[in-house]
From TrEMBL:
UniProt xrefs under Pfam families: TetR_C_33, TetR_N
Protein name: AcrR family transcriptional regulator
InterPro entries, alphabetized: Homeodomain-like_sf, HTH-type_TetR-like_transc_reg, HTH_TetR, MT1864/Rv1816-like_C, Tet_transcr_reg_TetR-rel_C_sf
GO MF annotation list: DNA-binding transcription factor activity; transcription cis-regulatory region binding
Organism superkingdom: Bacteria
This protein's record includes keyword DNA-binding: yes
Domain HTH tetR-type: residue ranges: 11-71
Residues within the DNA-binding region(s): 34-53
Length: 228
């Protein structure tokens, strides 16, 4: 068997395992993910699955990385068609609602006995997503303007911490802009999480309208806080 053929078969088998794991998350939630169940669904032994993913952590890390990258690409495509924070936020919401189990995997309750690698693939993928929102939210402003953003006073320790964040993403911003971004992200992420997990179902089909209004208010607040 030629090496390219072996590689193609390995790639196909890896994809099957990841797809089966995603299906299991869709049925049982992220906490229900089990290597044994994934292997059984593919009529593999657990030992055979270990040839592709040596541990549950490695499988979860790959799933999280793929989810972040898919989300980032969705948001990137949206702003390529219609630049701006509102289109980015709208695409983020649409992905979360359409992929609720994977959204729960990357943003929900931390999985028991799983720890993402420090500054590894998941971190790189999440920074790619953050970079899109940083650009769409703060792109029109000069660094000097962002450094004078109107936020509550930052302690010296907090300012130093925010200034030391590595790029890309929010690590490219001065400390006041990082603080402002985190506030915006908390509002955006919080509202999307409530909807994706069914906590605003009482609003029914008008949730999209509520979200759009909230994002418009957030954007207006950011513009007020950054000096001309």
């Amino acid at each position: 068997m030629s090496s390219p053929l072996r590689q193609r078969r390995r790639t196909a088998a890896t994809r099957e395992i990841l797809d089966a794991a995603r299906e299991q998350i869709g049925v049982s939630g992220p906490a229900g993910l089990s290597l044994r169940s994934v292997a059984r669904s593919l009529e593999m032994t657990v030992q055979a699955l270990y040839h592709y993913f040596p541990s549950r952590d490695e499988l979860i890390t790959t799933l999280i990385t793929e989810a972040y990258l898919d989300l980032a690409e969705t948001v990137e495509d949206a702003v390529a068609a219609a630049p701006g924070f509102i289109p980015a936020a709208t695409a983020f919401r649409a992905w979360a609602i359409g992929n609720a189990p994977m959204f729960q995997l990357i943003y929900g309750t931390p999985l028991p006995h799983y720890e993402a690698p420090d500054n590894g693939r998941t971190t790189d993928a999440s920074r790619r997503l953050a970079s899109v929102f940083v650009r769409e939210l703060f792109g029109p402003y000069a660094p000097e303007q962002l450094a004078r953003a109107d936020v509550p006073p930052l302690s010296a320790a907090l300012r130093d911490r925010l200034d030391d964040l590595p790029p890309p993403g929010i690590g490219t911003l001065p400390a006041p802009a990082v603080a402002l971004f985190v506030s915006v992200w908390g509002h955006l992420h919080g509202l999307v999480t409530l909807e994706a997990f069914g906590h605003t179902a009482f609003i029914g089909p008008l949730q999209a309208e509520l979200f759009q209004g909230a994002m418009q208010s957030l954007l207006a607040d950011v513009r007020r806080r950054i000096p001309a």
